[in-house]
Every structure is written in structure tokens, then in C-alpha cells.
Specification:
The chain is α+β, with helices and mostly antiparallel strands. The protein has 3 domains: 2-50, no CATH class; 64-131, Regulator of K+ conductance, C-terminal domain (Alpha-Beta Plaits, 2-Layer Sandwich), CATH 3.30.70; 141-196, 2-Layer Sandwich (Alpha-Beta Plaits). Helix content is 22%, strand content 26%. The protein has 3 helices and 10 strands. The protein has helices spanning 2-15, 25-50, 64-67, and strands spanning 73-79, 100-107, 110-112, 125-131, 141-145, 155-156, 166-173, 176-179, 185-186, 191-196. The longest helix has 26 residues, at 25-50. The model has no long low-confidence stretch (mean pLDDT 81).
């Protein structure tokens, strides 16, 4: 590998630093090792498949990020707040839609298996897994910039008195996505993502 090639090349450089040689051994060995690593790395997958060295039934370590974009599954995280409806409740007592599950719980930077007896604590990070949504119309979301003289500038979302068919989903402030809650203060140059649906009345 590259680590072995680097070790060999630098070892030769140390040995030959006090010797004069018309042959540049350092670059020759380094080049051979680099080419060897390139050939091995590019052909390893093909060779293992041809020789049937990999059993697809074996366990393979994956990360959650591996499955993002692999299908219609997506992951979302949320934090359990003190006094919230999820705090101090067992997972089995939480009513979830059949298409939504708790994939992982992180407590004090340690991953926990979300079995039914696990009691959620404040500041726990919940990783939700569900089916990814694709908007076939692409016209339900509106994104706009709040100007200095906009009616929403320097106002809390709870004070906007939005109609029932409008909902602020998130705010992009200096390339940081801020969840839209009632206590969120809208500021100048914020990029507001607004959902506009049909009026049910």
C-alpha cells in the first residue's frame, strides 16, 4: 500500500543520504511502489469477484450515511426537550406511524439500541427513519429572502398569524438551517422556506 511505499522510499533516502550514486534509487523505488499500489487497488474488486472471495451473506459494517441515497429511505434527527411529550417515556408507549421508526438514540455521545423498554431522557438525540418524500409537482414550497422592509422582519413566527394553509418549515441564515418554531425570530437576509397548501375551509 501507500504506507508501505512511503516507508520504503524514506528508508532508502535515509540510508543513501551520505552516499553519492548516479542512480536515483529513491524515485525509482517510490515509483515502482506507487504503480504497484495503483494496480492492486484498481484490480482488487475485480479479482475478489472473479475468485468468489466475498460472501454477500456475511456481515458488513455500514454507516447510516451509506443508505442515504440508496433508496427511498431517509434519516432525520431531533432532540428530546425537558417537559416535551417524549421525555421520560418508553419507546413502546410512543404511537408511531408504521412508516416511521426510531433507528437510533444517542445519549452522551453513545449510541443506544431503541428497544421498546428504553426510556427517553432530556437531551437524547433521536434518529428517525422513514420513507423519503418526493414532490411530483414541485410547486408547494416557496423560498424567499426577507428584506429590511418586509412585514415579517424582526418578528417572531408565533406573531405572524399565518393562515391555516401556510407553514414556515425552516430558515436559512448564513448557510445555517434553523428549524422554524414559534420562538424563532426572523431577521433581515433570512431565506424563509414556506409551505403553501390548499385552503381546507
Amino acid at each position: 500500500g501507500l504506507r508501505g511505499a512511503a516507508a520504503i522510499a524514506f528508508a532508502i533516502m535515509v540510508v543513501n543520504q551520505y552516499k553519492s550514486s548516479p542512480v536515483d534509487i529513491f524515485h525509482i523505488v517510490f515509483g515502482v511502489c506507487l504503480i504497484s499500489s495503483l494496480i492492486q487497488g484498481s484490480s482488487m474488486k475485480w479479482v475478489t469477484e472473479k475468485l468468489q472471495m466475498i460472501d454477500p451473506r456475511n456481515e458488513v459494517l455500514r454507516t447510516f450515511n451509506y443508505y442515504v441515497g440508496k433508496g427511498n429511505i431517509t434519516f432525520v434527527k431531533s432532540v428530546v426537550d425537558e417537559g416535551g411529550i417524549l421525555a421520560h417515556r418508553q419507546i413502546k408507549d410512543i404511537s408511531l406511524d408504521k412508516h416511521l421508526i426510531i433507528a437510533k438514540v444517542i445519549r452522551d455521545e453513545k449510541p443506544l439500541v431503541p428497544n421498546g423498554s428504553l426510556v427517553l431522557q432530556p437531551n437524547d438525540i433521536i434518529v428517525w427513519s422513514g420513507e423519503e418524500y418526493f414532490d411530483p409537482n414541485g410547486q408547494d414550497l416557496i423560498e424567499f429572502t426577507v428584506t429590511e422592509h418586509h412585514a415579517w422582519n424582526h418578528k417572531y413566527i408565533r406573531d405572524l398569524n399565518l393562515p391555516d394553509n401556510k407553514l414556515i418549515i425552516s430558515i436559512n441564515r448564513n448557510d445555517e438551517i434553523i428549524p422554524a418554531t414559534g420562538s424563532t425570530l426572523i431577521q433581515t437576509e433570512d431565506r424563509v422556506l414556506l409551505f403553501k397548501g390548499k385552503n381546507t375551509k
